[in-house]
Amino acid sequence: MKKLAFPILACLLFAITAYAQEADPAVDTTPKITSVSKITTKKHQTITIKGTGFGTHKAYTGNTDYIDLRDISKHPVWEAGYKPDDDTVTLIVNKWDNTEIVLGGFAGKWGTYNFTLVKGNVEWVRVWNPQTGKGPASKKVTVSAAASTVESSRNPSVYGESVTFTATVDSDVSHDGETVLFMKGATELGRGTLSGGSASFTTSALEAGTNSIRAEYADDDSISLTQTVK
To answer: Considering the entire predicted model, what is its pTM?
Structure first.
């Protein structure tokens, strides 16, 4: 009986090791995308892709065989991040683990040959597992406009003094006559009308202290500043 103990133990260890390797999701899982965060018209932005089975990859800027953002609304179609098509736009990848990929936006030939994002275009996001090559997981996302900056005419200001806030919209297709909302928390302070890519709103009703002012364009994206009133 003693002579059989070692072979049996060895077999058990082999079976446990094989099971552990089989159960490792980074090695053996096909990628699935559960959500993609908002994609706007900005060059540099944070895009978060969540799901399972993504495997792992080091942070990089450039192209790989394992991720692709394809603008299927433009003609000709252009891609970002996919290695077989090195002549297009590259991706900034800040994080890549089994359940989350975080992009920092676009690099490479962004802006040339009409390689930009336009509000309303559809981006086809695809991910392969770098360890197994399985995939792609895919999801389509509609591009949103971006309120890229909001500025104050005077900051700090004096209580009761008029202050003008100006939002500049970073969008290829921002149209004159569209509306930008100026918000404080959930309260709408006022509205401005886009002209030449910017919209303004003036108020003298701000409370003393710090006021977080947010500009929202087309309910798609927003950016804020802190206005100090003395």
So the answer is: 0.61
